[in-house]
């Protein structure tokens, strides 16, 4: 389960639906794994406005990952423009502009999309219910007495 997913999950109990403390779910005894993927700056730009930044920073801190910036980065800071010669052009006369991911984009990509909870638990801050995570998949099925 990618860290990004934790920014969109809340407790499944009806009792917790109206409580602010049911979001985000807090990782406990989490075994993390890095799954490298190609960076997609356009996706990062589009997701920035949907992130609950303070809650995300809290989850990242609980997992012991590197700190996120105090405020969400602006989408335009996720790319840098560099000058480069096209492949096969050894003369350097046909310089082109290329957009490459900035270090901020690389760091966000690493935390949000490459860092995964492989095993562990997700705990509701309101009721304390624990959702098991096994092989990267969280089980949100509630026992009958909690439905």
Automatic annotation (TrEMBL):
GO terms for molecular function: protein heterodimerization activity. One of its GO terms (biological process) is rRNA (guanine-N7)-methylation. It comes from the Eukaryota. Belongs to the TRM112 family. This is Trm112p-domain-containing protein. It comes from Zopfia rhizophila CBS 207.26.
């Amino acid at each position: 389960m990618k860290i990004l997913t934790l920014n969109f999950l809340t407790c499944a109990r009806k009792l917790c639906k109206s409580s602010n403390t049911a979001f985000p779910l807090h990782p406990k005894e989490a075994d993390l794994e890095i799954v490298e993927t190609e960076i997609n700056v356009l996706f990062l730009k589009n997701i920035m406005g949907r992130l609950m930044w303070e809650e995300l920073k809290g989850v990242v801190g609980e997992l012991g990952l590197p700190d996120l910036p105090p405020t969400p980065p602006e989408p335009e800071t996720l790319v840098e423009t560099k000058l480069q010669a096209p492949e096969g052009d050894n003369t350097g006369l046909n310089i082109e502009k290329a957009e490459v991911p900035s270090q901020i984009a690389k760091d966000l990509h690493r935390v949000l999309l490459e860092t995964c909870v492989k095993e562990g638990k997700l705990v509701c801050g309101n009721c304390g219910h624990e959702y098991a995570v096994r092989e990267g998949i969280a089980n949100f099925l509630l026992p009958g007495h909690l439905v």
